[in-house]
Design brief:
492 residues; Serine Threonine Protein Phosphatase 5, Tetratricopeptide repeat; mainly alpha
């Protein structure tokens, strides 16, 4: 075609053009292989540039527009299979589907309305079956809202007002009032069966459904509030959720008007009807509910407020739990401050004053307080020292802090507690087990331990950790104390 449109160009020139364009074009990234053959054919655009370089005079009359469509069509042509459909994956189709909670609710109500009234076994069986037909994972919020309160909730906690009827089964619509424990347990068992069948619902139930409902608990009152409190107590007691969901009730808009305190009191009261106080305390501890004052309005967060409220509600186990949690908090604060004072080498007089103030609060029992003081004073020691040096180092440290320890070893109970604390401490730090007898001797010499306390510990008050080793190491001291006691009796 090029030769026919350009008569002045002979075959030799065309051969040079082909060789130049296919193998030696300076305008392309194509390079020949070792045998001189090109790695690919030049494109039409590369050919234009080559012709313009070789035949500047003839190139303008060469019309390439006629062959461009042909080459473009050839390059764009792709194989196809007639009659083949691209099928979308099931999960992709579900994810792209429109979110229609009202439609989901209507489907649930349609199936539940066909069941006999109060037949909770039939409800559990139907919900089990519907899990294979409806998308529980996508509509977990509407599902549990229907089962808990009888309908779906709009943002803000109000029911969606679209004329739909309430569910024939829910904690609010089908449980008896006054609350019957057996009836409520049967309703909770429906949730248990559903969640055990579809295990992925348990995390959703706790983290989304219950917390979402509890943040709107101020929208419920009277019998509805009592039913939800009783059901929540059973959910926690049976392990369907942890007590961590209760922390939602510490939000400001629920706390300030006393809504949280009213509701949590009902939950605790219901819980103690089915389980013991120790069981409730364990559930609260595992759920991370440490600050009981967080349920009280800001102006009622004194220990007297908490104690007065829960004692009036006959919830003494909650009072004991709150005191224990508060004691642990004060203990940590005291220990951290003591370690800081020791590290800064503050005067012992200031350390004693600080510890006396903490002890007077009465939140830490005296036998626990002396253990706290020991650890706070001795934690600064370098336990990485050489074995032949560490014993003397520990004894010197004990002598230096003995005046502080003596202030808080006021009676035999605290003294025996301190000996046992030292025993366990030495057992856990094996390098200093050999220093135990010397420590006890120095504390006795500095009036931090009494003769009676040492003898009682040696006879029947010691801990189990390495008991025989420590009893044997203190035998010379015990023998000396007994002989001294006999000498005193002889003098009398």
């Amino acid at each position: 075609w090029f030769c026919s449109t350009n008569p002045r160009v002979d075959q030799q020139v065309v051969g040079v053009f082909l060789k130049y364009s296919l193998g030696h074009s300076p305008f392309t990234s194509v390079s020949p292989d070792d045998q001189g053959s090109p790695t690919r054919a030049p494109t039409v655009f590369e050919a234009r540039r080559i012709l313009s370089a070789i035949f500047p005079a003839e190139f303008p009359i060469c019309n390439f527009e006629n062959i461009d469509p042909l080459m473009s069509a050839a390059a764009a042509a792709k194989p196809s299979l007639a009659g083949v459909r691209n099928k979308q994956r099931k999960g992709v189709a579900k994810a792209a589907a429109k979110f229609e909670p009202e439609e989901f609710r209507d489907q649930i109500l349609k199936h539940l309305s066909t069941l006999p009234p109060n037949d909770l076994d039939a409800v559990a069986a139907k919900l089990d079956t519907l899990g294979n037909q409806l998308d529980y994972r996508k509509y977990e919020g509407p599902l549990f809202e229907v089962l808990l309160v009888g309908g779906i909730l709009a943002p803000g906690g109000s029911f969606v007002d679209d004329g739909a009827e309430k569910s024939p089964f829910s904690i609010l619509t089908s449980t008896q009032y006054p609350i019957d424990q057996v009836d409520m347990k049967k309703h909770v068992d429906v949730f248990n069966k559903l969640i055990r069948r579809y295990k992925y619902l348990q995390k959703i139930f706790e983290e989304n459904a219950l917390t979402g409902l509890l943040q709107y608990i101020n929208k419920f009152e009277g019998p509805d509030l009592e039913k939800l409190a009783y059901a929540l107590a059973l959910f926690i007691a049976t392990g369907l959720t942890s007590a961590n969901v209760l922390l939602t009730l510490q939000k400001e808009h629920l706390v300030k008007d006393g809504v949280s305190l009213t509701f949590i009191t009902k939950v605790f009261t219901a819980y103690l009807q089915v389980e013991t106080g120790d069981h409730l305390s364990g559930a609260l501890r595992r759920g991370g509910v440490a600050d009981m004052y967080g349920f009280f309005p800001p102006h009622k967060r004194e220990p007297s407020d908490l104690e007065g409220h829960f004692k009036a509600a006959k919830l003494d186990p909650i009072v004991a739990y709150a005191q224990k949690q508060r004691s642990g908090q004060v203990r940590d604060e005291t220990l951290n401050r003591l370690r800081e004072m020791v590290a800064l080498e503050e005067p012992q007089a200031e350390i004693i004053t600080f510890l006396q103030e903490q002890a007077q609060s009465g939140l830490i029992p005296d036998v626990d307080f002396i253990a706290l003081v020991w650890h706070g004073l001795m934690d600064r020691l370098d336990m990485g020292s050489r074995p032949d040096q560490i014993v003397d180092m520990v004894v010197r440290a004990v002598v230096s802090v003995a005046p502080v320890l003596a202030v808080f070893c006021k009676n035999a109970r605290t003294q025996i507690s301190m000996i046992n604390t030292i025993q366990v401490w030495a057992y856990e730090n094996t390098k200093i087990m050999g220093a135990f007898a010397k420590i006890i001797k120095e504390l006795y010499a500095h009036d931090a331990l009494s003769e009676q306390a040492i003898l009682y510990w040696h006879s029947k008050g010691s801990k189990a950790q390495a008991r025989q080793h420590f009893l044997k190491s203190t035998e010379p001291l015990v023998k000396f104390l007994k002989e001294q006691d006999e000498d005193d009796d002889d003098e009398e």
